[in-house]
Write a structure and sequence with these properties.
Radius of gyration: 27 Å
Number of helices: 12
Number of strands: 38
Bound molecules: (2R,3S,4R,5S)-2-(hydroxymethyl)piperidine-3,4,5-triol
Strand content: 25-35%
Length: 729
Amino acid sequence: MSIEFFEDSGIFHLQNDEISYVIKILKNDQLGHLYWGKKIKNAERLDRYQISQLRPYEAYAVKDDTGFILENIAREYPSFGQSDFREPAYQIEAESGSIISDLKYKEHKIYKGKKELEGLPAVYVEQKEEAESLDIILYDEVLDLEVTLTYTIFRDYPIITRSVHFKNQGNKEINLKRALSMSIDFENKDFELLQLSGAWGRERDVLRRPLEQGITKIDSKRGGSSHQQNPFAALVEPDTDEYTGEAYGFSLVYSANFIAQAERNHYGKTRMSMGINPFNFNWLLESGQSFQTPEVVMNYSDQGLNKMSQNFHQLYRNRLVQGKHRDQERPVLINNWEGTYFDFNTDKILEMAAAASKVDLELFVLDDGWFGKRNDDTSSLGDWYVNEEKLPGGLEYLAEEINKLGLDFGLWFEPEMISPDSDLYREHPEWAIQVENRESTLSRQQLILDLSRRDVQDYIIERVSAILKKANISYVKWDMNRPMTEYGSLELESKRQRELNHRYILGLYRVLEEITSKFPDVLFESCAGGGGRFDPGMLYYMPQTWTSDDTDAVERLKIQYGTSMVYPASSMGAHVSAVPNHQVERSTSLKMRYDVASFGNLGYELDITELNEEEIEAVKSQVNNYKEVRSLVQFGDFYRLKSPFESNFIAWSYVSQDKEEVLAGFYQVLAAPNPKEEKVKLKGLDPDADYKEVNSGEIYGGDELMNYGIKVPYLKKDFSSRVWRFKAV
Ligand code: DGJ
């Protein structure tokens, strides 16, 4: 890994064993982009492809070169207004009202390691030798604005991160109207955009569409990163599949409104950009003030999508997630939500916990309804005081009793919210996000706290900490259950109102930083009505996420498959729930439900006291089986083998880093009479090793499993599954 600067040609070459990324200082002193992809040894030679070309009806940015047309030049952090009519990476408005800027190269710094981002989550290094970074400082002399583009290249991953820092050094105000984290221009290529889209209960479907001339865009305006669009996109070639072809993946370490877009211009060039959504965004930079964008993780694979995903998984597992739980096996939990909803008391919870301990579960999570007067979803968010009528003796007693049963105790919170029917709202109506003189739109009968305010942040820190200190709580589920409307803060000045969404998320990040550092032993799981905020920003603070409120095994095949495009299994909460399923009323076998959930962080979410003896025995053996394979699931390499978006059959597998252990799952949605035979070819094994299938005792060659495959026996029923476990012998 190295970053070189060639003075004569003004070229920067960032490289590691797999990739090269090449930047050039152009003749107008702006930054150009020469290359990103598989490693190239001599970057300077790429300069020959930057040719000046006269084109009709274009403008040129250098007087004596009529071919220096920015519209036709690959740029690194483009502006608008000087011969490039594509969407820019940033836009300012000066006090004069002008939106024109001209960021020219001033100087650069190359250094070992990676800087932290002020107040924002980011990928990190543990030792300086793991990465090298480059700061390129650009300067606009009319505005007295300094902009630093930061790049980091990693030694062990084919990944580059980018972020941008703006500093107003002048004495006039500058409004930042757009401040994306990255922009990159590709040569003429027939790209497709791959995105993870969905809705509540059906998050992260894998969608793919060709780029045509114009803009192909995904975004969130919902306040959080959203169920609808994940802050991820990939540019792929038409023939890129799971194991072949190029894939350029972009993942934003951010949890609020974002944009990712690809613009294909009339020369066939593609500009990919990503960052904070410029819609409803403005940031005022007074004299001396700065603005830091979030970070984008840029991932290159020349071996298809699966390799791109494995790169993300490894980086996020090792260098995004933090704290002691990062490398620890995660507990198998039981959550009471679908088992009881709001209808519980201490006796009921202890009865469930006693049954859970008999099947060797490790953690009991008490979900919504333990505080204030919350017996349904109409009240009490904000009143984080235990409801002693429901839970006499409080959480201390409950936690102690649950601990006595040999289980850890976990608790649900929704700290960012406020119910109009709450003591907190009666005392502090001004703490809700709102626009003066306008009625606030409700969602699930609740409003959002204005986390841009310090007093609100401090209240949340104080309340959550007080509860965590009082009882023996080893896990927290941090929920958030509504989109943001009426963006407005009663505290912000009018010229800063459009800063609210970003200030909100900075406030939340501060709260999470404080609480997670105060309680390093607690395992945090984030949630937003399931996977409405399943993003790298949240993962930085909370090592796992509740993947979806849809717990149906068949639906989960799609949700977990799509989620795996970016996020590792150790981040995905996956529960076995009761049948008929509460979201789709489908009945699947306990085996199928386990076989799907056990490919993530396993949990149970049902009233375990209602299971019969046979089911209890089955759950016990599932839990113990999972304990045997969980390090493989949570820390192994994941392979997608058959896609639920393409067929009735789904398959996936985990292979341990040393290739000694393998877990492969095959699932059939609908059965067919007298069907064709199905086979699954495994990936990533040692071709020279022999593997023993643990249940049958049969021996297979690694080469055989990868080239002939496993023959799937005739599955006669709808919603059936087969799981094989292999060990090298
Ligand atoms: C939404 C979550 O996704 C559910 O798991 C549950 O915690 C409810 N909120 C509780 O209100």
